[in-house]
Amino acid sequence: MKNLTLNMDNALSVCKAIANEHRMNILKILSHGPHNVNELSEKLGLPFSTTAVNVKKLEEVGLITTELVPGRGTQKINSKNFDRIVIDLFEGDIEFEKNTISIEMPVGEFIDVHAEPSCGLVGEHDYIGMQDDPRSFYETDRHQAQLLFFKNGYVEYRFPNRVPYGARPSEIEFSAELCSEAPYFKLDWPSDITLWVNQTDVGTWTSPGDFGGERGFNTPKWWGIHNTQFGLLKTWKINREGTFLDGVNISDITISDLAITENPYISLRFGIKEDAVNVGGINLFGKEFGNYRQAIVMNLRYENQK
């Protein structure tokens, strides 16, 4: 799946181009394969001249490409360039972002795990090891995992600590796509998923269910629709005011409680507590599964000492 990512400065022309029913229908038709203008005109039920004008508009903003190909003579064939358009509505503060360390951790790069069935690792093209066998989490190609799941247990990662010596961490943020783990999928299947940072419990999110029945945007076609397809993107943020889950304060744990500068790495653990009310497991998604093209992302902000 090929994405077009836009910011607020360059999104307007694309938005204007697709704010038209005929052009949207052209993109739908081209999703099934290349067409020339005559073919598009027939399928749309529009005059050739009207179709050509709309094709030109889409071509001008780069959403489609027109190529000359041999056939009965030479003909112009139109192809779609992108599957998805993403608009970034965040206008970053340059000075603020300059002191931000961003690291994306593949879901298969864990350093510790305890997984109880149902459990498994899934790569982009096939299972890694055997389904429902905890030994699969120790396979040498586990680093290629794009989805991991277990009914009970935990998985732990270690991010490199790149805070400059003498600087002071001010905020740390983790985001990941995850959901509960049920046999096949079950929309009503709550699970209490807890996050630990440097062995400190920073809060629990109760996932409402295990989502399937419709394919995730990035989920490979070989992965059956009856299996888990996507999760929800959740963000934990810890700063001097406390811990926040998707912007809502959930804990009094602050960044000073995490002892970041005292450790050579930053530990992150997702798991189900032994005393959890809802033991509904975890699905954790990589870039090639689910609805969000990301793995586990850490953003760590710091201040230079004056």
UniProtKB/TrEMBL annotation:
GO terms for molecular function: DNA binding; DNA-binding transcription factor activity. Transmembrane segments: none annotated. Residues 13-91 form the HTH arsR-type domain. Keywords: DNA-binding. The keyword Iron-sulfur does not apply. InterPro entries: ArsR-like_HTH, HTH_ArsR_DNA-bd_dom, WH-like_DNA-bd_sf, WH_DNA-bd_sf. It comes from the Bacteria. This is Transcriptional regulator, ArsR family.
